[in-house]
Amino acid sequence: MLGIIEYFLIARKFEKKICMMYNTIRTRRVSMENLEMISFQIISCVGTAKSSYIEAARKAQEYEFDKAEELIKEGDAIYIKGHEAHASLIQQEARGESVAVNMLLMHAEDQLMAAENFKAFAQQQIVIFKKFQDIENR
């Protein structure tokens, strides 16, 4: 049985591949099929970012702060691709072209917010464990 760390490492590799597959999707008018693809792009990109943020928090707990901060940057780089896909839907709506909201898109937006929360958590873990390390070194 896989441990949680192994699960996240496997999921992270898989999500990166999916995110790269859908990264080139840019449409002016979103059909239902394209909406699903954009939703999957969001889910896979921000899922990969979330995995990086979780791993960063774990590295902070091990006092590996350089690696933790590197993982935050890696997560940010892939997160922005999901955010851009989401922004394209918002821009379409702003132009007066409606976007049909479905469960998949709602899930994508939920994952987007979850990734943001995990990033904040990981950043706090880095700050907290740096303080712990300082206390231990006194």
Summarize the structure.
This protein is mainly alpha-helical and 138 residues long.
Q: Decide which structural class fits the backbone.
A: mainly alpha
- How many separate helices? 4
Helices and strands, in order, run as HHHH
Quaternary assembly = single chain
The end-to-end span amounts to 40 Å
List the keywords:
mainly alpha, 82% helix, 138 residues, 4 helices
Textual characterization of the structure:
With 138 residues, this protein is mainly α. 82% of the residues lie in helices and 0% in strands. The protein contains four helices and no strands. It is elongated.
Show the helix and strand layout.
Blueprint: H1 4-22, H2 32-61, H3 65-94, H4 103-136
Helix pairs in contact: 1-2, 2-3, 2-4, 3-4
